Task: inverse folding
């Protein structure tokens, strides 16, 4: 008689698939990262890009172009993409809805409202306007997103974060913040309005290493907090009755 076939547990198969998918996506991301460094106003050979990243730049000009000008922008794009991906996954987990995202729950428009408010106030700040925009804008955007998310969760907390109610309340706050943002842009100076629209659309232009001083720290702290709250997140992922119990 032949020996019975050994079946691999479904969890192990899913884990292997997840690891394989992650490695493939990592390879694609690294290739796109190097390609982004090579393409620009002055194209650089892909081999020279790789050599420069490993400390063997063919000439000082290539090293300056890649390390000081293009690399900070590419790193900023990767960090932003990673942060958005984790934020979306956590939002779907808490909301128990695969369509939930920070923009649907009002967090994105709340942050936009905070940032535009700083740009509107900078008109009356005189010589301190540049300082206010540079430091106040990211702080105000963060506080705006946190405030809206706190209001949304406070209004649906009594219903054990019921998924549909959470999305509906979030959409309401999102629309309110978007309307207030448009109103402030209409009343603001033309230059500030253009600057706000550029910020709202998102750009990595003129990003330097100094601008990236805090982004990795914030993302690492957010990931650490999400890991520490894993048990609570797993409970919230269940249905309302089970999570309440």
Result:
């Amino acid at each position: 008689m032949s020996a019975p076939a050994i079946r691999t547990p479904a969890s192990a198969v899913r884990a292997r698939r997840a690891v394989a998918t992650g490695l493939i996506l990592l390879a694609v991301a690294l290739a796109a990262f190097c390609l982004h460094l090579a393409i620009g106003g002055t194209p650089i050979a892909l081999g020279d890009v790789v050599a420069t990243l490993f400390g063997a730049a063919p000439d000082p000009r290539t090293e300056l172009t890649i390390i000081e000008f293009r690399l900070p922008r590419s790193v900023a794009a990767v960090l932003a993409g990673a942060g958005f991906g984790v934020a979306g996954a956590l939002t779907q987990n808490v909301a128990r809805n695969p369509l939930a995202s920070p923009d649907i729950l009002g967090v994105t428009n709340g942050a936009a409202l905070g940032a535009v408010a700083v740009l509107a106030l900078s008109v009356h700040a005189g010589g301190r306007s540049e300082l206010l925009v540079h430091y106040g804008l990211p702080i105000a955007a963060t506080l705006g997103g946190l405030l809206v998310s706190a209001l949304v969760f406070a209004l649906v907390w009594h219903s054990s974060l019921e998924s549909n109610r959470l999305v509906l309340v979030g959409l309401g706050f999102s629309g309110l913040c978007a309307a207030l943002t448009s109103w402030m842009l209409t009343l603001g100076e033309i230059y500030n309005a253009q600057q706000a629209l550029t910020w709202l659309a998102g750009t990595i232009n003129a990003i330097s290493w100094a601008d990236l001083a805090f982004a990795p720290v914030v993302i690492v702290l957010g990931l650490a907090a999400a890991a520490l709250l894993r048990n609570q997140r797993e409970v919230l992922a269940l249905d309302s009755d089970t999570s309440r119990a």
